Amino acid sequence: MLWPEGFATSPAVDHAPLHLPASAGFDVNTLLHHPPFHVPRSMRKTVPSAFIDQTFMIISGVSAKKEQCLVVEGGKVDEIGSGLNIVACDDAVKFDDGRELFNLQADGQLVTSIGRKCVALAHKEDADPEQRELQLTDCDAVGGDFDRISWKVSPQNQLMASPLPHSESRLPSDFCMSLDGQGLPGLKNVAEGATTHASSSADQEAHIATRATDGLRATYWASQVDPEEPVTLQVNLGANAVPLRGIEIKWECPPKHWRLETSEDGVHWLNVFSKEPDLAAAVPKKKGMKKVTDQLEITKVPLDGVHASAARIVMDVPAPRCATAKGERLFGVREFSVKVAKRSPWLAPCDAKGGDGRSKWFLTQVGQWQPCRKLPNYRETFL
Question: Within this chain, do residues 86 and 74 fall inside the same structural domain, yes or no?
Fold first, then answer.
């Protein structure tokens, strides 16, 4: 079919005609059934709280190398209890599951465009009362473990939280959506210094399990020589499960067959990765480092918000011959890293000082998202 002048025809993200003025309105359903489009930078505008039933991305004002967007963890936009996070906007769009798309309802509730679940204040019995965590819940839920929120965009680009009318809310007054933590958004290693143990160790000091999580590049954990059974190296992350963004393993003596598992309760385990390790990267050569450290194999396993309170590596026998151990058969891990987000959305006093734009949010209008676009031959079938 013929496209109007100015339309892009990329199957991924199509933009609105650039020759139209910034004040022009669009209805994607009336433009020749054109696929969804993202409004270009030059056409961005802040969406007021009265701008109901429009789809938008919520961009954080925090200082960062890339624009950070509010997203639903793991893309679970239709699940009660799903958490929120911020990731680079271009990375969020690549998932193509609508995790970064929201609407405002007439009552001010912030709702996921695809899953139709609302952002609310979560209450957990075992949680720190100062940790005012935001999660998804049913938009018409009453009572329970959530306080539903009516959001308003202030002239200062803050998302101000208020209780819904006629609700018995525990919501604090004069609070806004903000970010916890400090520094640039990104990932941090929660395994460093965490409780770590192994089913087998080469000795009781130099190569014990904690050497894999002590943060020191010169130390490593090693199993006993010639183990007769599979060997497990496990790190416990605390009492509460946290959403993981990835796990990285720097091998000293990599196994041929192994698997990576996570657990929310330390009892039931989920296999998240299982294969022979790949040479994903090499540690750059640096002065003073031994040659063996320069040539470590590294396995990086991305995890899209998998909740876990523990992670473990299960290594199958026979163990390979290890150059570090003069050809003896054993397993070895130099670094076992578990990555989580440094900063997450929460509720904080609107006048809290941070100096990094943590409580500033910019709503950017986008077109409608169509899950059918993920189907094979979408363009041939529907266009």
Answer: yes
**Same structural domain for residues 205 and 337?**
yes
Please answer whether residues 153 and 363 qualify as being in contact, where contact means their C-beta atoms are separated by less than 8 angstroms.
yes
- Overall domain count for the chain: 3
Boundaries of domain holding 35 = 1-39+367-383
The whole-model pTM stands at 0.75
Is residue 74 domain-shared with residue 160, that is, in the same domain? yes
The CATH number covering residue 278 comes to: 2.60.120.260
User: Which three-class secondary structure state does DSSP give residue 28?
Assistant: helix
Lowest mean pLDDT among 41-50, 90-99, 171-180, 327-336: 41-50
pLDDT exceeds cutoff 60 at 51: no
CATH number of the domain within which 86 lies: 2.80.10.50
**By C-alpha distance, which of 326, 103, 131, 328 is closest to 227?**
328
Q: Half-sphere exposure (CA, 13 Å, Cβ side) for 61?
A: 17
pLDDT above 70 (res 125): no
279: its two tokens: 């040479």
Residue 312 CA to residue 271 CA, distance in Å, equals 10
Q: Which two tokens stand for residue 5?
A: 């002048």
- Nearest alpha-carbon partner for 13 in 40, 31, 38, 33: 38
Band of residue 354 on the pLDDT scale cut at 50, 70, 90: confident
- Strand partners for 161: 151, 175
Torsion of CA 64, 77, 368, 111, to 10 degrees: -90
User: Both 219 and 177 in a single domain?
Assistant: no
Measured torsion, CA atoms of residues 348, 354, 356, 360, in degrees rounded to the nearest 10? 30
Q: In angstroms, rounded to a whole number, what is the distance separating the alpha carbons of residues 302 and 52?
A: 36
List the structure tokens of 332.
């070895």
d(CA 102, CA 153): 14
The pLDDT assigned to 309 comes to 97
Q: What is the DSSP string of 55-78?
A: -EEEEE-S--SS-EEEEEGGG-TT
